[in-house]
Here is the input.
Amino acid sequence: MMKPLSRVIAILLLVALITPLGMTRALADLMLPSGLQAIHAEAFLGDTGLTTVTVPEGTVSIGSRAFADSSLTDIYLPISLTDIA
Here is the structure.
């Protein structure tokens, strides 16, 4: 069960990636904020502008298809990560 703070951060990340037209912004490099505990399923699904992600220490899980159909080429994972769906 996720803590409310990690839910809020995940929602804020998704909102920050959506433009007023509903289009995903092109992000090349994304450093996720410290305090993030989980990346939800399909969080970055289809984000073709995303090439590099740095997941912060303290993150423990990445949901199913979190980066599916993206252009991700590099991902940096923390030692704290215990579950990848």
Observations:
- The chain has a mean pLDDT of 78.
- Strands lie at 29-31, 38-39, 52-54, 61-62, 74-76, 83-84.
